[in-house]
Design brief:
The chain is α/β, with parallel strands linked by helices and 580 residues long. The protein has a single domain, classed as FAD/NAD(P)-binding domain. Helix content is 22%, strand content 21%. It has 12 helices and 23 strands. Strands 1, 2, 3, 9, 10, 11, 12, 22 and 23 form a 9-stranded mixed sheet that branches. Strands 6-15-16-17-14-20 form a 6-stranded antiparallel sheet. It has a 4-stranded mixed sheet with strand order 5-4-19-18, with helices on one face. 53% of the residues are buried.
Length: 580
């Protein structure tokens, strides 16, 4: 029998960026918060010996253990989904800080076009621009409404950046100046400027200078060591939940963080979430944590699975398009081009996760789509993240994958290769979704999450168009050999692509077509908030973290308002039928 714990004001399921933000804001307001994290605790001191590529990059020491927690995958409904037995396409984090520990730190604001993509597309191109099988819609909030929360996240994280003429408009400058430029980045900037484009230094959570945020937390200046992605920062120079919001929450004395705590059910009574049931993964003991407000702040896939597992919300049905939980799963595509330089060498081993330059001229609706049969686009960037010896062996096509010739070409091109890559937007499709697998179960007897996903015609056309632009940029940069990225016939769960999964618990203004309102409060359970990229209606042409942070700060404000007013829906749905 589960042990019932003392009731708290708020319980979060996960202690990463979103869980940390909720905890910091609510405890500062005087509320008691319990944070449940299924992984272990960790802080900057745990990363002192972090520069071990084999352990952290190849064997994913900071990531989710798929022998204990995994998903099943298939390309379409006619296939049988099989379990993912090794991490590949994406790398969910595990432990305190979540993926915010091992991220690169590239921090963008989604464009105004993203948040009102359906109405803006219809107004400019007509309602038939894409077929009915694409389920994109407005997010239920405008950029103007969300902009203060973007800035709030940037202030807490100390983001380093500069004005972007093609990006989302800003009312305030970045908290810290942009990172240093390099000969590699200058080469990209000069080439794109010559092409009439608008390059900028990438906004970065690897800070350009020492910084104290509004909560009094100090973030150190980046050392440009080249060990960001898949690694924690031993200098405390990469903004993460562990050096910002989590210490802020802990210093209030009102935050109780419980590690090794696997939540297996959200408890619902009378149409409201009243707490969660969790298992201590060390002792095997089971507990119930009652709370006035439950906040799911886990990874995209886990947020969706926990709702389905707890029978909260209407599961999405691809056959008739009804239901919302599991709907609008989106990923990203990666148009791009690699350039091989015969007579030039670059210091590619140096860098930082967000050391890069970007053009947004082909992102969102910044270019005319009238004669194109796709929408949106992507940010086009060159990054200098630090080329490590095991995982970085880019060689020209035709090179053997092993043996003396492979070694020769790997050594020759290790510091003679540059890549220009775009983060291509992903538009939701009726057949791309998440549900519970009817066959495979986890250790606790609960169904695994099943992911059904494949590339669409929209993806292919966008990929082809942006890849040609990337090839033109690489040509202007003077590469001797240019190889353009190719899109496979079908999406595969390996190799690594990005960790930018979105959707499943999407936000909106209508309870019939969305799971949460613009405070990320469930339409079907007013005391339950679901915070993260699971709320994204589609995936844009950027890293999602900046937008996740903004939505988390708005959700924290909404939770406080909910508690102060004693309950109730914070936003009324355009469709009243699902509201009590």
């Amino acid at each position: 029998m589960a042990t019932r714990l003392e009731k708290t004001d708020v319980v979060t399921v996960g202690v990463g960026w979103t869980g940390g933000i909720i905890a910091a804001e609510l405890t500062k307001a005087g509320y008691n918060v319990v944070g449940l994290e299924r992984g272990e605790d960790r802080s900057t001191k745990d990363f002192q010996m972090i520069h071990d590529e084999y352990r952290y990059d190849i064997h994913h020491d900071l990531m989710q253990d798929v022998s204990k927690e995994t998903i099943t995958f298939r390309n379409n409904r006619d296939e049988r989904a099989l379990p993912m037995r090794r991490l590949g396409s994406f790398l969910p984090g595990s432990g305190v800080g979540g993926a915010g520990v091992h991220w690169n730190g590239q921090t963008w604001r989604f464009l105004p076009y993203d948040l009102q993509i359906k109405s803006m597309t219809d107004e400019k191109y007509g309602s038939g621009k894409l077929g009915d099988e694409y389920t994109y819609q407005d997010w239920g909030i405008s950029y103007e409404e969300l902009e203060p929360y973007f800035y709030q996240f940037e202030l807490v994280a100390g983001i380093s950046g500069e004005d972007n003429p093609k990006g989302a408009p800003r009312s305030n400058e970045y908290p810290t100046p942009p990172m240093k430029s390099t000969p590699i980045l200058d080469k990209f900037k000069n080439a794109t400027s010559n092409m009439g484009l608008n390059p900028i230094q990438m906004p970065s959570a690897n800070l350009s200078e020492n910084y104290e945020n509004p909560d009094g937390q100090t973030i150190a200046q980046c050392q440009y060591c080249g060990f960001c992605e898949r690694f924690g920062c031993e200098y405390g120079a990469k903004s993460s939940p562990n050096v910002t919001v989590i210490p802020t929450a802990q210093q209030t004395g009102k935050f109780d963080m419980k590690t090794h705590s696997e939540v297996v059910e959200v408890i619902q009574e009378g149409g409201k979430a009243t707490g969660v049931r969790f298992v201590d993964t060390v002792s095997g003991e089971e507990f119930i944590q009652p709370a006035d407000v439950v906040v799911l702040t886990s990874y995209v896939l886990n947020n969706t699975r926990l709702l389905l597992q707890s029978n909260i919300g209407q599961p999405y049905n691809p056959e008739n398009g009804q239901g919302v939980v599991g709907k609008n799963y989106c990923y990203q595509i990666l148009p791009g081009a690699a350039g091989f330089f015969e007579d030039q060498k670059f210091n590619t081993y140096m860098g930082a996760g967000s050391l890069g330059a970007t053009v947004d001229d082909y992102n969102g609706d910044n270019f005319d789509h009238s004669d194109l049969d796709f929408i949106h686009g992507g940010s086009i960037s060159i990054t200098q993240t630090g080329r490590r010896p095991i995982g970085s062996n880019l060689t020209p096509s035709g090179t053997p994958s092993w043996g003396p010739e492979f070694k020769k070409q790997s050594l020759n091109y290790h510091n003679r290769t540059l890549s220009v890559v775009a983060q291509g937007a992903s538009i939701p499709h009726r057949e791309n979704f998440m549900d519970l697998d009817p066959t495979y179960k986890d250790f606790y007897g609960n169904s695994l999450l099943r992911l059904t996903y494949d590339f669409t015609e929209q993806d292919r056309k966008l990929h082809q168009h942006i890849t040609e632009v990337c090839g033109e940029i690489m040509k202007e940069m003077g590469a001797d050999i240019i190889e353009k990225n190719q899109m496979d016939d079908h999406y595969d769960i390996v190799p690594y692509q990005t960790t930018h999964n979105t959707g499943g618990v999407i936000m909106g203004a209508d309870a019939e077509t969305s799971a949460v309102n613009n405070y990320l409060q469930m339409w079907d359970s007013e005391s339950l908030f679901v915070v993260g990229a699971s709320a994204f209606v589609h995936n844009g042409g950027y890293n999602p973290t900046g937008t996740v942070g903004a939505l988390a700060y708005r959700a924290a404000e909404g939770i406080q308002q909910y508690l102060e007013q004693g309950g109730g829906q914070l936003v009324k749905s355009k469709s009243k039928s699902k509201l009590t």
